[in-house]
Design goal:
single chain; Tetrahydropterin Synthase, Chain A; four-stranded antiparallel beta sheet; 4 domains; alpha+beta; rod-shaped; 8 helices; three-stranded antiparallel beta sheet
């Protein structure tokens, strides 16, 4: 009976040792087995694993894609127009052994600090070699690829793989915004003044063309009207001449009546003329002929 407690104690100690030595590696993690601070094993496959209790410890690191948002960084492109750039990166731990040797117990926090310095250096090197217009245009995609490649080569020494780098924002510094806005406003006002001047010039050309067209149209119409009137007068004269040639006496009588109608217009008309004037030849005739002709 005295051996039973001893046996139970041994069994409990063995069970405690087994439980202390066993651990589970999640499929989203990678594990390092450290013995007195030195890397003993790297476990990348998920599942159950074992360690030596009290001698070895297990450190796990996230095997998923991680993100890093950099602090706003002021860069000076090739055209000396300073910009404030915000960027972010996607990365993962590619070599946990090298990662542990590079960052030590600091882990992810220490790695982010060092990776941000690498990204900032790559941003300054790449963006400083181009103009600000390239950063704000569609060429930004190619620039981000260059920044990613430069940061990737440096981050491999930390056991990290930079997957992607993106520029979220590229703006002017606050102290330069007012001057930039004023310059942009002046440029827009100059462009507006140029447009107004070109519009006035075009309007003057249109008005001049319209005035010339109107003058030409009126001149052509006046010419056609003069031609028509001249032809009508010629026809009228020809008709009168033909009528006069057929019966000169009747034509003379008709013209005398027209003269009487024009001269004697009413009760208030007064005409002072000699009674034996030729104007009254048809008044003195009884047969409708002038008196001289009748005689």
């Amino acid at each position: 009976m005295k051996k039973l407690p001893v046996f139970l104690g041994v069994v409990a100690l063995v069970l405690f040792g087994l439980l202390s030595s066993a651990f589970v590696v999640d499929e989203r993690e990678k594990a390092l087995v450290l013995q007195f601070g030195r890397v003993e094993r790297v476990i990348e496959e998920p599942g159950l694993a074992f360690r030596i209790p009290f001698m070895q410890e297990v450190v796990t690191y996230d095997d998923r894609i991680l993100s890093l948002d950099t602090s706003p960084l002021e860069v000076t492109p090739a055209d000396d127009r300073r910009l404030v750039v915000d960027a972010f990166a996607r990365y993962r731990i590619s070599d946990v052994r090298k990662f542990r040797q590079a960052v030590g117990p600091g882990g992810i926090a220490s790695a982010k600090t060092r990776l941000e310095r690498i990204l900032n250096a790559s941003l300054r090197a790449v963006l400083g070699s181009v103009n600000s217009g390239d950063i704000l245009s569609e060429d930004r995609i190619a620039l981000m690829a260059r920044i990613r490649d430069a940061a990737r080569s440096e981050s491999l020494n930390l056991g990290l793989e930079v997957i992607d780098v993106r520029i979220k924002r590229a703006d002017l510094p606050d102290q330069n915004l007012a001057a930039t806005f004023e310059r942009m406003n002046a440029e827009r006002e100059r462009e507006a003044a140029d447009e107004r001047a070109r519009g006035k010039e075009a309007a003057q050309r249109v008005r001049a063309t319209a005035d010339r067209t109107a003058l030409e149209t009126v001149s052509e119409a006046q010419r056609d009207a003069d031609i028509v009137r001249g032809e009508a007068d010629a026809q009228r004269i020809a008709i009168f001449a033909e009528a006069y040639g057929r019966d000169p006496e009747f034509f003379e009588f008709y013209r005398s009546l027209s003269a009487y109608e024009a001269a004697l217009t009413g009760d208030t008309s007064t005409l002072v003329i000699s009674p034996d004037s030729e104007f009254f030849d048809y008044f003195a005739s009884q047969n409708g002929r002038p008196a001289a002709a009748a005689e």
